[in-house]
TrEMBL record:
One Pfam family this sequence matches: MZB
Protein's name in the database: MrfA-like Zn-binding domain-containing protein
Top-level taxon of the source organism: Bacteria
Membrane-traversing stretches: none
InterPro entries named in the record: DrmB, MZB
Domain MrfA-like Zn-binding per the UniProt entry, residue ranges: 540-644
Location of region: Disordered: 21-42
Biased composition (Basic and acidic residues): 24-33
Length: 678
C-alpha cells in the first residue's frame, strides 16, 4: 500500500484507489464500453443525512453501497465552477469548534434539479459511493467470493434498479437436473465486523472456516455460503470446497463468539483507509441491515435574525475565508481590499472604520489547542437552542413580522379563554428555515450513549481539519407554545421529591451503566438525566403531534418537535416551551395547514382533545401505572405506542423521557401539571 504523508491525512490511504464513479463512467464511454452508467440509485437529502450518510450502508435493489467520505465528494464539486454554501453562521461556528476547523463550510448535497425528466442537467453531480460489502454470494450455486469474481452490469439508461452483479458461469447447486453454465445474480454476503470506535471491516470468511489458518489444499480456496433457513441472525454455514472444512456463523454470535473473532484492524471503508497504528479493540459480528450499524451525529438550528455581534463575527469569517493568505497583504490597504472582496463579500455599506474592525477580527489568531479542547469539553448542545428561545420571547410588533435575512415569519396569536392557563403564549411560525449539519457518526452506540468521547466519533474525512461538511436546508412552518415558568418551577419542585421521579432516576442510572459504552464509566449518570420539565414538555409535544396530525393535513411522521426545557443556570435563564413544526428539504415551504391550527379557537380544541386523550390509553391500566423497578431500566413511564410515543422522524430523544402522569392526573397519581382535561 502506498500511503499518503501523515501531514496531509491522519490515516493510511492508497490514493491510487480513489473513488471517482463519474470519471470512471466517462473513461469507459470514451473506450466504447457501456456496462457502467455510474449512477445506481437516489435518496432524499434527509435520508442521506440521517440514515444513509458517509459510512452507512444503503440498500439498492440488487446490492448495497456505502457513501464515501467527503474527500471523494470534492471530485464531484470540481466539475462545477462555483460551489454553493448554506449560510447559517451560528451553526457553522459550532461545527467549526467541534471539528476543530476554523473556516469550515456548510455545503448541500451535490445535486441539481432537472427541468424535464429526460434532460441532462445535473448529470455531472451525485454522491460518490463504493460497493460494500465487497464479498458476494451467488444465488444460484452459493459461491462466496470477492467482488472481482463477479460481472457488473448497469446498461439501461433509465432503469438503475436493474444494476446488478452476476456470476457469469453458475452451474447451480448439487442435485440440480440441468447444470449448464448460466448467469445468476449475486447478493451481498451479509456479515461484517464492527468495533465501538466506529471501524467496520469485511468478515474474514476464509480465516473463519479454517479456524484462523490458511487452507492446506489451495492458495485461493473456493468458498460457499450455505443458508437454507429462514431464521434471523447468523444462520449461514461457510464451507470450503477445496479442503472440505465447514463452520457455522452462529459461533461468532454473542459474548462467547467475540473471543473467536479477530481484533479490529482500524478500517474506515468509507475513507478507504486504516488507522496508522491499528485499533486492537474487540470486534462484534454485525449484519448488513443492522439498525445499530450507523448513528449520525448531527446538530441543527432554526435560523433566527442575527444580532449585531453575530453579524460582525460572520463578516470576519467571510473576509478571512475569501482572502486566505492575502489577508495579511491587503489588511492595511482598504481601497485595494474593497476591490479584492468585490463579488466575494459585500462590504459596500461598511465605513472604513467598520471595515478595519472586521479585518482586524478576521486576522485575529485562532484559539490555542488547549483553549479549543476546553471549549469542546464544556460545550452543551443546549447552547444552540438558547438564541432561538430568547428571540421567541421578544414581542411581535404588529400582526405579522417577517425577517428578510433569515426568512423567519412570526404572527402573534391571542389566547382563547378556554386554553389552559399554564400555556401563556402562542406564536404562529408561518415560515422558518432549519439547517442541519453532519459532524460524524458512531457505530454500535448512538452519540449520546458513548460518553461524548471524540475518539468514538468516526470522521467524515481523512483530513484532521476538514474544509467542509454536508448540511441540509429545510423550510416549513410551525406553532410555538410557551408555558408559565413559575408554574413549571413549582410543579418541578413537587415532582422531584415524588416516588415516581426517584424510580425514573434509578432506572436511568441502571440504563446508563448497562448500555453506555465502557468509556462512559467516569460520567455521572445524573448529569445525563433530563430534568422533570423536559419530561413534561416532551410528553406535551408528543400528544400535540398526535392530535395535530388528525386535522392539519400532514402525517404524524411529518411533524417534529423542538424542545426548550432547561432550568435556570449560570448565564442561562430557565426555559419551558416547544415548537411543533413540519419542514422539508426538497420543497420550498409547506401548505399552511399547521399554522391555521394556531388560531385561538382551533388551538384550544387541539390542546383540550390532546390532554383528554392523554388521560386514557388502550393499554391501561398497565400503561398508566408503569413504573420502572429494579432490574428494569426503561426510560419512560406511563407512555407507550398506543398513547404517546411517536415515530423516529418526530422525536428528538428516541421516545425516551416520556410520562403521561407528569402531564395529567391518572388513576393513582396526582402529579399532572395541567389541572383537568375535560
Amino acid at each position: 500500500m502506498t500511503a499518503e504523508p501523515l501531514a496531509e491525512t491522519r490515516f493510511l490511504y492508497d490514493a491510487s484507489n480513489a473513488v471517482d464513479p463519474l470519471g470512471d463512467a466517462e473513461r469507459e464511454s470514451d473506450e466504447g464500453r457501456k456496462h457502467n452508467r455510474a449512477k445506481v440509485g437516489s435518496g432524499r437529502p434527509s435520508s442521506l443525512l440521517y440514515t444513509y450518510g458517509p459510512g452507512a450502508i444503503m440498500d439498492l435493489p440488487q446490492f448495497t453501497v456505502m457513501p464515501s467520505g467527503l474527500d471523494d465528494w470534492d471530485r464531484i464539486w470540481r466539475r462545477r465552477d462555483g460551489i454553493p454554501q448554506i449560510r447559517a453562521p451560528r451553526l457553522r461556528q459550532a461545527v467549526a469548534m467541534l471539528l476543530r476547523s476554523r473556516d469550515i463550510q456548510l455545503r448541500p448535497f451535490p445535486w441539481q434539479a432537472k427541468k424535464m425528466s429526460l434532460s441532462t442537467e445535473g448529470n455531472d453531480l451525485g454522491v460518490p459511493a463504493r460497493v460494500f460489502p465487497q464479498w458476494l454470494r451467488c444465488t444460484g450455486c452459493d459461491m462466496l467470493g470477492a467482488l472481482a469474481q463477479f460481472d457488473y452490469r448497469n446498461t439501461h439508461p433509465y432503469r438503475t434498479d436493474l444494476a446488478c452483479f452476476e456470476h457469469a458461469r453458475c452451474t447451480g447447486r448439487a442435485g440440480d437436473r440441468t447444470r449448464r453454465p448460466t448467469r445468476r445474480p449475486a447478493v451481498p454476503a451479509r456479515y461484517l465486523l464492527a468495533c465501538v470506535d466506529g471501524h467496520l471491516d469485511e468478515f474474514p470468511y476464509e480465516r473463519w472456516v479454517h479456524q484462523g489458518q490458511q487452507c492446506d489444499k489451495a492458495e485461493f480456496p473456493a468458498l460457499k455460503m450455505v443458508d437454507r433457513t429462514a431464521g434471523k441472525g447468523a444462520s449461514a454455514v461457510i464451507r470450503c470446497e477445496s479442503c472440505g472444512a465447514r463452520r457455522p456463523m452462529n459461533e461468532a454470535q454473542g459474548e462467547a463468539g467475540r473471543s473467536k473473532l479477530p481484533r479490529c484492524r482500524g478500517r474506515h471503508p468509507h475513507l478507504d483507509a486504516f488507522e496508522p497504528g491499528g485499533c486492537g479493540n474487540e470486534t462484534r459480528l454485525m449484519l448488513v441491515g443492522a439498525s445499530n450499524l450507523w448513528f449520525p451525529a448531527t446538530h441543527s438550528i432554526i435560523v433566527m435574525p442575527e444580532s449585531s455581534e453575530e453579524r460582525k463575527s460572520d463578516l470576519a469569517d467571510q473576509i478571512r475565508t475569501a482572502l486566505g493568505e492575502k489577508l495579511a497583504k491587503y489588511r492595511d490597504d482598504l481601497e485595494t481590499l474593497r476591490d479584492v472582496l468585490d463579488g466575494k463579500v459585500d462590504v459596500t455599506d461598511l465605513s472604513d472604520a467598520e471595515l478595519t474592525e472586521a479585518v482586524a477580527a478576521a486576522g485575529a489568531p485562532p484559539a490555542s489547542e488547549a483553549e479549543q479542547e476546553e471549549r469542546i469539553r464544556t460545550w452543551d448542545p443546549v447552547d444552540l437552542l438558547v438564541p432561538e428561545w430568547l428571540y421567541l420571547q421578544k414581542d411581535v410588533l404588529g400582526p405579522r413580522v417577517e425577517d428578510p435575512s433569515s426568512g423567519l415569519t412570526l404572527s402573534k396569536r391571542e389566547r382563547d379563554p378556554g386554553l389552559p392557563t399554564q400555556i401563556t403564549r402562542v406564536l404562529a411560525v408561518e415560515k422558518l428555515r432549519k439547517v442541519n449539519a453532519l459532524i460524524g457518526f458512531t457505530r454500535i452506540d448512538a452519540m449520546d450513549r458513548v460518553g461524548d468521547l471524540p475518539r468514538r466519533l468516526a470522521p467524515l474525512t481523512r483530513s484532521a481539519r476538514p474544509a467542509w461538511t454536508v448540511a441540509t436546508e429545510d423550510r416549513g412552518e410551525g406553532i410555538f407554545l410557551q408555558l408559565d415558568d413559575q408554574a413549571v418551577a413549582a410543579w418541578e419542585e413537587r415532582i422531584s421529591t415524588s416516588d415516581i421521579w426517584r424510580a425514573h432516576r434509578d432506572a436511568h442510572r441502571r440504563n446508563f451503566h448497562r448500555r453506555f459504552s465502557e468509556t462512559a464509566v467516569q460520567v455521572d449518570p445524573d448529569t445525563r438525566l433530563r430534568p422533570p420539565r423536559y419530561w413534561l414538555v416532551h410528553t406535551l409535544a408528543h400528544v400535540l403531534i398526535r392530535e395535530l396530525a388528525m386535522t392539519c393535513g400532514y402525517s404524524a411522521a411529518s411533524l417534529s418537535e423542538r424542545l426548550y426545557a432547561w432550568p435556570e443556570s449560570e448565564g442561562r435563564s430557565a426555559a419551558a416551551g416547544l415548537l411543533i413544526c413540519t419542514t422539508a428539504s426538497d420543497s420550498d415551504g409547506t401548505l399552511g395547514g399547521l399554522v391555521q391550527l394556531s388560531e385561538p379557537t382551533r388551538l384550544q380544541g387541539v390542546v383540550s382533545r390532546a390532554l383528554y386523550r392523554a388521560t386514557r390509553c388502550s393499554s391501561d391500566p398497565i400503561c398508566a401505572t408503569r413504573t420502572p423497578q429494579d432490574p428494569e431500566d426503561f426510560l419512560h413511564g406511563a407512555a407507550c405506542h398506543c398513547c404517546v410515543m411517536a415515530s423516529e422522524t418526530s422525536c428528538e430523544r428516541a421516545n425516551r423521557f416520556l410520562d403521561r402522569r407528569f402531564l395529567v392526573d391518572l388513576p393513582g397519581s396526582n402529579l399532572g401539571f395541567f389541572d383537568h382535561a375535560d
